[in-house]
Amino acid sequence: MTGTPGAATTGDGEAPERSPPCSPNYDLTCKVMLLGDSGVGKTCFLIQFKDGAFLSGTFIATVGIDFRNKVVTVDGARVKLQIWDTAGQERFRSVTHAYYRDAQALLLLYDITNKSSFDNIRAWLTEIHEYAQRDVVIMLLGNKADVSSERVIRSEDGETLAREYGVPFMETSAKTGMNVELAFLAIAKELKYRAGRQPDEPSFQIRDYVESQKKRPSCCSFV
Ligand SMILES: Nc1nc2c(ncn2[C@@H]2O[C@H](COP(=O)(O)OP(=O)(O)OP(=O)(O)O)[C@@H](O)[C@H]2O)c(=O)[nH]1
């Protein structure tokens, strides 16, 4: 993705809503951010979810921040996800920090074929705790699960890290689409549940939901 450094580009030609409220009136509008090192696949992940397509070929790093909207229906409610795709490169960090505070959910990606992207997850979580809302929903995603021959991070390592931080985890592929929709649906369900919780409604546990729904890569998860 390209854009103007320091400014939000409007990928759909739609004006981004500043501080969208999670209001039961619209059914619901929620702001989700994609975070993680440069090259882990954030833009591809978003395009796969939005358009069902995979951007292969030359890697063009995101500049600044970009967004797309997509409406999903969960449990009878229409949830508009406003999804912000951030630049993973260090030099854009101060731009993206400004967007954290309005986010209700963060999808934090690493690349299962890139050890440093996994090692940097702790630093990302530190940053999240510094800049994001305290009750922000966080999900850890090990992307590029289709590239089993180049895997350097075991699925178990992702699971262990996620458990340590109390966040849901799954491996994904922006190329094949594995678990991409599920990641956003789980977020939408959680935010819908938080926004419109009825006294008689059973509680929604996002980690249990993800565990019960996620697909695992067809090949072994060991290296
Ligand atoms: N095989 C495979 N390749 C992927 C996957 N996701 C992304 N890629 C490739 O990884 C490279 C980087 O993808 P991007 O989506 O641009 O990465 P990014 O995280 O948005 O990078 P920044 O914009 O710099 O933060 C591209 O060459 C993609 O084609 C995936 O799930 N599987």
UniProtKB/TrEMBL annotation:
Stretches the record annotates as Disordered: 1-21
Keywords: GTP-binding, Hydrolase, Lipoprotein, Magnesium, Metal-binding, Nucleotide-binding, Prenylation, Protein transport, Transport
Top-level lineage group: Eukaryota
GO CC annotation terms, alphabetical: endoplasmic reticulum-Golgi intermediate compartment
Biased segments, Low complexity type: 1-13
EC numbers: 3.6.5.2
GO MF annotations, alphabetized: G protein activity; GTP binding; metal ion binding
Signal sequence range: none
Reactions mediated catalytically: GTP + H2O = GDP + phosphate + H(+)
Family assignment from sequence similarity: Belongs to the small GTPase superfamily. Rab family.
The keyword Secreted is annotated on this UniProt entry: no
UniProt name for this protein: small monomeric GTPase
Cofactor(s) of this protein: Mg(2+)
GO biological process: positive regulation of autophagy; protein transport
